[in-house]
From TrEMBL:
GO molecular function ontology, one term from the record: exodeoxyribonuclease VII activity
Domain spans labelled Exonuclease VII large subunit C-terminal: 133-425
Source species of the chain: Nibricoccus aquaticus
Coiled coil: 275-309
GN (gene name): xseA
Protein name: Exodeoxyribonuclease 7 large subunit
Keywords annotated in UniProt: Coiled coil, Cytoplasm, Exonuclease, Hydrolase, Nuclease
Main location class: cytoplasm
C-alpha cells in the first residue's frame, strides 16, 4: 500500500477500493438509478432448479442478458418457459456480487410469440420438406453389421466418450473413426459438411454418425443450417443424426436416414443391431453344426448299410450262407425222416396189435391162463383142500361118504378121513 500511496500522491482525493467495495458501488448505482421495466426477448439456455428457481437468458439479435425468476414469482406464472419462446418480462436489474455479473430479476412473464430462431427453424423446415428433402423414399437402410463407422463430432466432447463407452460395454466389434469437427458456433455447419464430403471420398465407411451433446437452441443451431442439412440429405453413406437430448430436434434429424435421440441412443441402436446379428449368427452356427452332425450320422448309417450289403455280397459270405442253408436243409431232412418213420410206426402199431392178438401162441397163452385159473378153482374146491383146512370126511365101510347123522347106526364101523390120514372109529 505504501508504494501505491506514493504513486497516487499524498494530496489525492481518490482512495483505492477492493473488488468487493467497487462491485457493491456498481450494485447500488444500478439498483438505485435503474428502475424496473418491461423487456422483450427470446428465452434460451433455460435451467429450472430443484429449489424452484428458474435461470435463463433473454436475447435478441444484438445482445443477451442473464435472468433469474425466484421460486415465489415462478410459481405464480401461467406461461411455461421453454427455449426459443419469445416473451415480455417485467423485472429489475441486480448485481450478483460473487461473480460481478448483472442480471435481470424477473417478476412477471408474458408470452410474445415464437422466437426468431424458432421462426427460422420452422420456415426452413417447411421449405426443405416441400422440396422432398425429408421424404422417406430418400432414406437409406442402415447396414445390419457395419464394419467401419465414422462419427462426425467434437473429439473432446462428452458425446463421443459416451458413444465409445456404450459400444465397448455392449461388446460391439468393429472400427470407429472419429472425424473431428466444430459442432457449435460460426463455421461449425460448413466444417461438418466438409467432413461429410471427406468421409464419402475416403470410401471406407459403412455408416456415419453426426451429432453432439445437448444444449440450447442456439448451441445446436449449426445442425439447422441449410448447407449442412442438404449435405446430410445428399450423403451417399447411411447416416444417423444424434444431436442433443431426447427433447432436442434439429433439421439434420429430418434429413438423416435415422434419428437417434442422443449420441448414446445411436450407440445403443448400432450395438443392438450388432447383438441381434451376432445372436442370429450364433443360432445359425448351432443349426449348421446340428445339420452337419445329422448329415454325418446319416452318412455313417448309409456307409454301415453299404458295408453290410458288401459283406453279404462277398464270396465268403455266399459260401457261409451256402453252408448255413446246407445245414438247415440237412436238419430239415433228418426231422422229416424221423417224422416219417414215427408216422409209419404209428400206422403199423394197430395191425401188429391185432395180429398179435390173433396168433395161436397168444390164444394158447390165453387158454393156458384160463385153465390155470380153473385148476386153481378146482384145487380150492377139492376134498383134500377142504380137509387141509381142518375139516374131516366120514365114510362107511363101503367107502361111501356119510352125509347125515341119521345114516349112522349104532356099533357101525366108520372111517374118519383127515387131511393127514384116516382113523377107524365105531359109532356108539
Amino acid at each position: 500500500m505504501g508504494r501505491v500511496d506514493e504513486e497516487l500522491g499524498d494530496g489525492s482525493d481518490e482512495r483505492v477500493q477492493s473488488v468487493t467495495e467497487f462491485t457493491r458501488r456498481v450494485k447500488e448505482l444500478l439498483e438505485t438509478n435503474l428502475r424496473g421495466g418491461w423487456v422483450r426477448g427470446e428465452v434460451s439456455n433455460l435451467r429450472p432448479q430443484a429449489s424452484g428457481h428458474v435461470y435463463f437468458s433473454l436475447k435478441d439479435a444484438g445482445a443477451q442478458i442473464s435472468a433469474v425468476m425466484f421460486r415465489g414469482d415462478a410459481a405464480r406464472q401461467t406461461v411455461k418457459l421453454r427455449d426459443g419462446l419469445q416473451v415480455v418480462v417485467y423485472g429489475g436489474v441486480s448485481v450478483y456480487e460473487a461473480r460481478g455479473q448483472y442480471q435481470l430479476i424477473v417478476r412477471a412473464v408474458l408470452e410474445d410469440g415464437v422466437g426468431r430462431l424458432q421462426q427460422e427453424f420452422e420456415a426452413l423446415k417447411r421449405r426443405l420438406a416441400e422440396e422432398g428433402l425429408f421424404d422417406a423414399a430418400r432414406k437409406k437402410a442402415l447396414p445390419a453389421v457395419p464394419a467401419t463407422i465414422g462419427f462426425i463430432t467434437s473429439p473432446t466432447g462428452a458425446a463421443v466418450q459416451d458413444f465409445i463407452r456404450i459400444l465397448t460395454r455392449r461388446g460391439w466389434r468393429g472400427r470407429l473413426i472419429v472425424l473431428p469437427s466444430k459442432v457449435q458456433g460460426e463455421g461449425a455447419a460448413v466444417e461438418m459438411a466438409a467432413m461429410l464430403r471427406t468421409a464419402e471420398e475416403l470410401g471406407i465407411f459403412d455408416l456415419l454418425v453426426i451429432g453432439r451433446g445437448g444444449g440450447s437452441l442456439e448451441d445446436l443451431w449449426a445442425f439447422n443450417e441449410e448447407p449442412l442439412v442438404r449435405a446430410v440429405a445428399g450423403c451417399r453413406i447411411p447416416i444417423i443424426s444424434a444431436v442433443g437430448h431426447e427433447i432436442d430436434v434439429t433439421l439434420c434429424d429430418f434429413a438423416a436416414d435415422v434419428r437417434a435421440e442422443t449420441p448414446s441412443g445411436a450407440a445403443e441402436l448400432i450395438s443392438s443391431r450388432f447383438i441381434d446379428a451376432a445372436e442370429r449368427t450364433r443360432r445359425a452356427a448351432e443349426a449348421m453344426k446340428d445339420a452337419l452332425e445329422r448329415a454325418v450320422e446319416a452318412a455313417g448309417e448309409r456307409l454301415d448299410h453299404a458295408r453290410s450289403r458288401l459283406r453279404l455280397l462277398s464270396p465268403e459270405a455266399q459260401v457261409e450262407r451256402g453252408f448255413l442253408r446246407l445245414d438247415d436243409l440237412s436238419g430239415r431232412l433228418s426231422l422229416a425222416l424221423r417224422q416219417a418213420v414215427q408216422s409209419k410206426r404209428q400206422q403199423l402199431a394197430v395191425p401188429a396189435a391185432r395180429l398179435e392178438r390173433s396168433s395161436p401162441e397168444f390164444r394158447v397163452q390165453g387158454e393156458s391162463q384160463r385153465l390155470l385159473a380153473l385148476w386153481k378153482r378146482l384145487q380150492a374146491a377139492s376134498p383134500a383142500s377142504v380137509l387141509n383146512r381142518g375139516f374131516a370126511m366120514v365114510r362107511d365101510e363101503q367107502g361111501k361118504p356119510v352125509m347125515r347123522r341119521a345114516d349112522v347106526k349104532a356099533e357101525q364101523r366108520l372111517d374118519v378121513v383127515f387131511g393127514d390120514g384116516e382113523v377107524k372109529v365105531r359109532a356108539e
